[in-house]
Design goal:
47% of the residues lie in helices and 11% in strands. By secondary structure, it is an alpha/beta fold. It has a six-stranded mixed β-sheet, sandwiched between helices. A three-stranded parallel β-sheet has the order 4-6-8. Bound molecules: 3,5,7,3',4'-pentahydroxyflavone. It comes from Rhodococcus gordoniae.
Length: 361
């Protein structure tokens, strides 16, 4: 596993004892380095706890005027929550522990969202799921040509969480109506690049990867505004933006089956994109896809706090479904990528089962 070259100014941060994060404070900047490169910085309970402790201490420390979050991996910022142990615990029926895991994670995300000091995240690599939770809610999200962003949970029989039912429906515009692009990203788990992330507002800045070490050194020297002024370059073009009209037509309203059927029948949308999107939607957990559409619709009219609370209830119930155990097995445990979903088709999902995931009665 490659490691970023040692920073010329600061060197690598000393490890927190027995921890997958490193921290330091210098020149008024509190820095968290995610340091679990072998797991692409997937967030386990200890990381969630340790990052939150640092943020809480720095929030109330007048010597800290800004927070920087980086990674020691040259491949990933953070691939998500560490869901393999969550699967184990769920298979043992220990749903109180499942709930504690997600509650801890969302509490951290909420702290980022309400952080009273400038919060800067450097997303120089894979950034998925929980990785968005500790970045997108902050003020500054810097991308590079190595950034790959996604909310890929429907591929593992889970649902987009970490507050995404608040920010995905609001990507482009502020009306209560659910944004079609957010619906598309949440349902399909589509991977997007820096240009796309900037076009939809998930990212705020672009810096070429080769300049990231100098950029972060400038921030560590206590000069984050200068760093942005000096190193930020224009956003690359977005291929996703070219698809906005198609995405609007397909994902703008209606049920999941309406959306799939529009991919089949609309003749004025890009045929290659329609085919890829149809194949993707048909390969993901049908239950997860239906639950995600409902999460996005409800999230469009909810506060962030309400979204976290709803996501927590839904996440714990989804973790009890066979699709979660099967999806995590197929993608992350055995890596066979051959999940057998139950029910197997979008047409076979029972609306009553989806309502039950939301606690409706
Ligand atoms: C969907 C997900 C995750 C995923 C892949 C998906 C996820 C996650 C990881 C991941 C990746 C590499 C690791 C690891 C976990 O992949 O949440 O431990 O080494 O954490 O399609 O939701």
């Amino acid at each position: 596993m490659g490691r970023r070259r040692t920073s010329s100014v600061t060197g690598r941060l000393p490890p927190v004892n027995e921890s997958f994060i490193r921290t330091r404070v210098a020149n008024g900047v509190g820095e968290v380095q995610l340091d679990r490169p072998g797991a692409l910085n997937a967030l386990d309970r200890s990381m969630i706890r340790d990052v939150r402790s640092s943020l809480l201490a720095w929030r109330d420390d007048p010597a800290v005027t800004a927070v920087l979050v980086t990674s020691t991996s040259d491949r990933a910022f953070c691939a998500g929550g560490d869901v393999k142990p969550v699967r184990e615990v769920a298979l043992e029926g220990r749903f109180d522990t499942v709930r504690e895991y997600f509650a801890d994670e969302y509490r951290l995300d909420e702290l980022v969202a309400t952080y009273p000091k400038p919060y800067l995240a450097v997303l120089d690599g894979v950034t998925m799921g929980g990785g968005l939770g500790i970045s997108v809610h902050g003020a500054v999200r810097v991308t590079t040509e190595k950034t790959t962003m996604a909310m890929p949970e429907t591929a593992i029989g889970f649902v987009p969480d970490i507050g995404s039912s608040h920010f995905l429906p609001r990507l482009r515009g502020t009306t209560a109506r659910c944004d079609a692009v957010g619906m598309y990203l949440g349902l399909t788990g589509a991977r997007i690049d820096a240009g796309d992330a900037l076009a939809v507002g998930l990212a705020t800045h672009y810096v070429p990867s080769a300049r990231i070490d100098d950029f972060t050194d400038r921030i560590r020297a206590g000069r984050w505004r200068d760093a942005l002024d000096e190193f930020v370059e224009p956003a690359p073009e977005s291929s996703l933006a070219q698809r906005f009209p198609d995405i609007e037509m397909v994902f703008g309203d209606g049920t999941v089956l309406d959306m799939v059927s529009r991919l089949d029948v609309l003749t004025d949308i890009d045929a290659t994109w329609a085919e890829q999107t149809r194949t993707a939607l048909r390969s993901l957990s049908p239950t997860s896809v239906w639950a995600t559409a409902e999460l996005m619709r409800r999230g469009a009219e909810s506060t962030l706090e309400e979204c976290f609370a709803r996501e927590l209830d839904v996440a714990v119930r989804v973790a009890a479904t066979p699709d979660f155990a099967e999806g995590v097995r197929a993608v992350l445990v055995d890596k066979t990528r051959d999940p057998r979903w139950s029910p197997a088709a979008l047409e076979d999902v029972d609306p009553v089962a989806i309502a039950a995931l939301f606690g409706d009665r």
